[in-house]
Specification:
Helices cover 52% and strands 11% of the residues. The protein has 263 residues and is an alpha/beta fold. Helix 5 (113-121) packs across helix 7 (154-175), helix 10 (207-217) crosses helix 13 and helix 11 (222-229) packs across helix 12 (233-247). The longest helix is centred in the middle third of the chain and has 22 residues, at 154-175. It is flat. InterPro entries: CheY-like_superfamily, NreC/VraR/RcsB-like_REC, Sig_transdc_resp-reg_C-effctor, Sig_transdc_resp-reg_receiver, Tscrpt_reg_LuxR_C, WalR-like. The modification 4-aspartylphosphate is found at residue 83. Residues 20-29 have a biased composition (Pro residues). Keywords: DNA-binding, Phosphoprotein.
Length: 263
Amino acid sequence: MRPSRHPRPSHSELGAESPRFPPPAPAAPPLRLLVADDNPVVRAGLTALLSGRPDTTVVAEARDGREAYEAAVRHRPDVILLDVRMPGVDGISALPHLVRLAPVMMLTYSHETETVREALRLGAGGYLVHGEFTTEQLVRAVRDVREGRPHVTPGAARALLEDLRRDAPAHAASQHAVISADSAPSTLSQLQPSVGQSFRSRFRLSTREAEIMDLIASGMTNQQIAAACFISEKTVKNHINRIFAKLHSTTRSQATAKWLGVA
């Protein structure tokens, strides 16, 4: 038998020439969630929805704030989904105690201004109103809150903005406190329309740009605005560049002052 003209390389030679790939990274463990809501249908729906995914799982349920606290101590979840109105200990009352154990995402039908503001003041990492998000948006919001990135759905954001707009006339009046008593009535009557939508229409902002300008005026960062509008931060920056051009402003404070009619 003739020897082969092209002998096969040895295993050692193959090993030396073959590229070595690192082993695949292990999949991240699912995010462990606690669902607190007095409505059993809502709890069951959220549990079925979030436990049926590879990236999230519900480790405990609670019917009120007291049960939520006890379950959080026992299970140490990554994120707590908390309703506002519950019998016994409600969500707002339980919130200061729960945020010491895990990040809290308010998940509720309530979007009254005082409730939203109080929840965020007490440490809630986000505020989602039922009916204003998809499953993927909910999961993304939960993961972001776990990492310290806040999420607020449009209904909650609107509640805060309406409160801001109510405060705007008082803020505008304080800027003109040096007006003499004789000239005050006519000057203030001229000032009031400048705070409303008729004044803002002259800037010719699109609906989306006006929404984002409202969020800027409320003090939100680009990251928070992106979360509230479910768009990327790059898209937010593009909108802000166009807004600043239309308002002839170079800073957020300048744009806010013009938008609120106090510049």
